[in-house]
Amino acid sequence: MTEATENKTSLRARLPAPFRRIDPAVLIAFGCILLLLFLGSLYSSNFLSLEYLLQQLKVASFLGVIAAGMMLVILLGQIDLSVPWVMTMGAMMACAVAGFGTGGMILAIPFGIFCGMVFGLLNGFGVAYMRIPSMIVTLATNVVAQGLMVLYTGGFSPQDSAPEAMRWLATGFIIPGVPNAILVWAAISAAMVFLLTRTTFGRSVYGIGNSERAAYLSGIDTRRIVMIAFAVSGALSAFGGVLLAGYASKAAQAMGDAYLLPSIAAVVLGGTSILGGRGSYLGTVAGVILITLLQSILSVMQMPEAGRQIVYGIVIIVMLLLYGRGPASP
Amino acid sequence: MSEWRYWLNEQRGTLMGLAIFLLMFSVYIANHPAGLTVNVVETAANKGVLLAFIAMAQALVVITAGIDLSVGMIFVLTNCIASWIVVGTPMQTALGVAGVLLAGAACGAINGLLVIYGRLQPIVVTIATGAIYFGVALLLRPFPGGSVNEDLADALTGRLFGTIPTSLVALLVVVLLVWLPFRGSEIGRAAYAAGSSETAAFMSGVPIRRARFAAYTLAGLLAGIGGLFLTFFTYTGEAAFASGSGYTLWSIAAVVLGGVSLYGGRGSAVGAIFGAFAARTTGDMLFVFDVDPLWQPLLQGMVLLVAVSIGAIGLLRVRSRLDWFQ
């Protein structure tokens, strides 16, 4: 056991300085991305074309925005199960407000995100101040959000279509050839890296994830930090929904269902510990790209849904067995 | 006298679950146009037992401080398997039932092996195995269909002696044959110990690994029984993703309503059953109050939110603020 650790450290010490600090999990995840691209290119050379890669990054950006919020919550050692309907709510509310003339058009995106933040605050209040396990609070708020949206839409797909601004944000181009969604994801990523590594808030998140008691005793207002983290997660989920609605040009019932488990999987595959306190944002980016590529390659290979689910599950387990294992004995 | 108090303390969660259920059910019955008739009880029982089995499965794992997010998918998978093999002569049907239960237990055992011997976190592992189980279910039933031995199905979903819903009797039998022996056994006590404090249990030489493995396997078995009953109710097999994930989420809610601590080591599968019935009654409540069905999810969510907030009252008794942080 110790020998292996020493071996690892000496190996790392020999690497050039910029690589030394990178988590091995992140390296494995990026290695797997290259492997997937290589396997894909054996099947068809289209997989290495620039258009395909940009298209994948665009699809990945929706998951990426959501996973950024999820990561913040997982770093605290909590989990956010309210993603599906907070996301749908963000999309539906943004589309609905856009129906009210010019003022609505301007307020559409901020209002969608605001709704997500309100639910995030509710989650955060339950977890931080009422000390209810996050799994059950976020589960309940998810059902409440679903209830509100079912009531609002009457159970049908809403008729409002996404306003121009939302479509532009998801599918337009500021830089020719690079969809705006990728730029949005890049901006949020840059903000996340800054937040996690350069601010008191970010360092407190890691501290709370390791030991909330110790963080509290060090004078951190842990409850406030936890509540803010959940609010950010809710806002980012809703923003992901807004982007997705812009991409699909309207909001739909259950549009968020397919994003909960992949967002958790992306964060964990990127080397973030589900117990909190450990993980780098770069890993989450790798996890998001990995999952998007995997889904895309399987669908291009025309594998039926059943096979896709099975391969998807097996890949997650194999990757976790590679680097996500806990200590040997309790 | 003091022993009685220990017992009460241990059963507090379960009694709480029972109280929530009784309260909801009596409000439901009091406002039901038909009142407390055999038909009403039978319908309520048949709706509730499915979630009750899944909630029991979840409770077993949660007691060991784990979580199983694949129970709903095992439920769907065993439903699909049952729609293939629980048919034909009584002998074939019996073999089919055994096969379905075995498949459920095998799914649970795979979860257990990965969590305990693979040393992986249960949340993530069961998300992944859930995807695999759903994929297999979809392979078996790309389209809804299949059939089941209808004699057996009708026998198990009807009434015994014209008054008692058979599904409730089946639930009781499962509690007597699976839960009570488990709870009383060395393995079962070890499961509680492992959930309560893994380190202390390890130091005391408690067989933690075997206990947790048994909990995951039995959870798979119980989810399999649930899948079998789903087939008896619907006569078909269907690989429905929404149904699987819905049952998983509601099983967690039921477990919490039934007084099982998500931190492990507290509560019982019987409490989870009451939690499941309480959760189901919430859904039915709107019928009797003649509320627009569109309000149903919202009211269910509100009830859930209020119910879990009740647990926060315990905070008022905390003497040291450090106790806020587990």
Task: Summarize it.
Chain A contains 15 helices and 2 strands. Chain A is mainly alpha-helical and 330 residues long.
Give a topology summary.
The complex is a heterodimer of chains A (330) and B (326).
Chain A: H1 2-14, H2 17-20, H3 24-43, H4 50-75, H5 83-97, H6 101-129, H7 134-153, H8 164-171, E1 173-175, E2 178-179, H9 180-198, H10 200-210, H11 212-217, H12 222-248, H13 260-269, H14 281-300, H15 305-323
Antiparallel strand pairs in A: 1-2
Helix pairs in contact in A: 3-14, 4-9, 4-12, 4-13, 4-14, 5-6, 5-7, 5-12, 6-7, 6-12, 8-9, 8-12, 9-10, 10-12, 13-14
Chain B: H1 2-10, H2 12-31, H3 38-63, H4 71-85, H5 90-117, H6 122-140, H7 150-157, E1 159-160, E2 164-165, H8 166-184, H9 186-196, H10 198-203, H11 208-234, H12 241-257, H13 269-288, H14 296-310
Antiparallel strand pairs in B: 1-2
Helix pairs in contact in B: 2-13, 3-11, 3-12, 3-13, 4-5, 4-6, 4-11, 4-12, 5-6, 5-11, 7-11, 8-9, 9-11, 12-13, 13-14
Using DSSP, what is the number of strands of chain A? 2
Give the neighbour order of strands across the main sheet of chain B.
1-2
What kind of sheet is the major sheet of chain B? 2 strands, antiparallel
* CATH T-level topology of chain B: ABC transporter involved in vitamin B12 uptake, BtuC
